[in-house]
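batch job 7 of whatever, protein = ABC transmembrane type-1 domain-containing protein
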Amino acid sequence: MRKIFFLFIFHLLRQFFQNSVYYSISILYHLYREFCIFFEEKAGDFMKRTLLTPLHFGVVLIGLFLLSGISSLLDYDTELVINVGAYGLRLWQTILDLFSPSSIIVIWGADDREYQMLDIFLSTYPYSFSILFISFFAAILISVILSYLMMLLPRNLYKLSVKVVNILDGLPDVFLVVLFQLFIVWLFKQTDILLFNIYTTGEERIYTLPVICLSFLPVVFLMKQFLFQLQEEESKPYVEFSFSKGFKKSYTIWFHVFRNVWIHFFLHLKPIFLLMLSNLLIIEVLFNIKGFMTVLLRTATSSAPAFFIGMLLISVPFFLVFTFGSWLLKKWLKGGEYNV
């Protein structure tokens, strides 16, 4: 351990003097990862929960803080250089500003007016995350219903619908949003009926089309996962036993097969939620929504403390929720084969 420690310090100092931040961060990451693996192998479940979870939480906070000043790290003077000094000053100024949140200013709007950070966050955060949560739960509900109905289709129709799902899964996010918008415009020109608003103006807020666009790809992704797991379960002996007892296919799939694939569904919730969170920025830009993600994008280069607090508002609640959910899932599995 002592040899590894001194080797780490040597590499860190050497890369610091060579002005290579990336390599130093890479060493820190691998050291932290090896420590977590070593600790998980040696410690018990209680020690893992009580020590590793706060450690992960602390690493998240430190990572977000270091990321908040990243815009000042790179500079251009005849060539691209890494400006460590300006980066350190930006982080120090961020620490000072965090002690007085009411004084943090955000430049926002088409006229680049200055607003207090808390006012902007309180007005945009509920709107953006209401769209996100509505889309999230709609995607779960729709994917479950469609997967169940597809399992009841005849074999030929089932194969055809699986091909359609695979094609839809390969479509880009931006393409789908623009396609929906063009369809609404075409329908309006043909019938003079405007189904949904496709663009916001002023303080107007729209929900329907952004929710549809944001939940479309998660529905397709969850359907693929559901159908794969359902097919795996359908070949198991308990399904044939249920059929031999005279239960219908619809009953067996819903009450027996679906119950055994819920664990796989929960394991995919985190990547689905992260996918929707990243797509939320695309939705806000394409629909001209004055939402939280566009504010966060603006503060990334204009206000490091506001950017840091904005990332905390995203990361910390969901870190706590998913950590608690993982703990509940582990209790349910009682130390089963899944790593959550």
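notes: The chain is about 75% helix and 5% strand.
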